[in-house]
Amino acid sequence: MSLSEGDLAGLRADAVDIFKHALRTCDIEQAFARHFCFKGKVLRRQQSPMLPPVEHSFAEIKRVQVIALGKAAIPMLDSLLARLPEKLRVDGVCSSPEPPAKRHRHIRYYRGGHPLPNEDSLEAAEAALELLRRANRQTFVFFLVSGGGSSAFELPRDRTIPLEDIRAFYETLVLCGADIAEINTVRKYFSAVKGGRLAQAAPDAEKLTLLLADVPLKDMGVVASSPSLPDTATWAECAAVLARWKLLPRFPATVRAYFQAVGHGDPTPVAPPVHTQVDVLLSNHDLVNAARARARALGYKTVVDNTCDNWPCDRAAVYLLERFAALRAEWGRVCLLSSGEVTVSVEGTREGCGGRNQHFVLDAALRIDGGQTPMVVFSAGSDGVDGNSAAAGAVGDPTTAARARHFHFSPEESLARFNSCPLFTALGDAVLTGPTGNNLRDLRLLLSSS
Question: Is 54 in a helix, a strand, or coil?
């Protein structure tokens, strides 16, 4: 079967359409509308349509504190504040990689760094701890937690470690090839606000954590390295991650000395449990379900396969292409949908521009280079940002590599240098959404027209 540019253009448009429809469906304001309302002095939480609502009386509450952190901090904060009774006194801290369009009184805003912490990340954590220490039994604390909060909200347990070393520590972790659960296990032992320590600062207050889960629901404690939920990470698990990825020799001297001291001292649990209730506002399941519904509406036989979550990028590409070939042989017009994240391991100093989504698409495009199957491979992050690039992801097809060579790119070299964004941008195949204010993991799509 010969390739038709019209078929490929249609498939590329469908892939982008499915992704953007899923993002629109997972609107944070709508999620709050489904989950929360105040009836007088009573907060009603509708956790599930199948369960009765949970009610909290605010009759004795004199003050509300809100700590919002991560890529969705601003829309989560705005949606909550719009629902709180006006007579309640509200104080809070918000740390997000993006600046707010509007500012609320009594909320201190910080532009925390991502993927590496910055000065605002540290100041936000200090401000939140200071605020929470003033909480008492007449205080209700909302923790609004979303992905990206690990770097946007950070404070080392050893306050003598300088920011430049904290950033180098983060960069080494993110690029080592470890999955997010392993990365956050190490972060929890490094941080004064992760692993439940943030909630520990307000032991007497009633607390509610609202999550945008960018991890599997069984791993809710991984979101933003679990600042407000009881955590079960052990030093043995942390030490195993450090050893597996040979991290200690790669850390700055101050960070290496800190972990060595912890290992030779009394490695207590990350934090004693502090009671806090938790609701999941939106999760990756919502994103996947919305994408599946849209693909079916467009006429695709749709299959969801998340088997390769947290796999190395190249292994995930091989697996999904093989699964897709089998599905296409059976059904023809098919959409294989896969969510979660793939991992990449970057050796040495990173010079390229791109992220795991564009890297995955370029890897897959090279594997189907010159093929005659009318198909596309799509991958993008629901946060609208892929690595250190301005793109959310990319879309590729069997002509991608040839078109790149026509524009004097070497796709093999771009892949090896983790420099996929310039290639996809030149081809017009970068997926650009801008920061979405959401974060429900990545979405991969493989589509064929026949």
Answer: strand
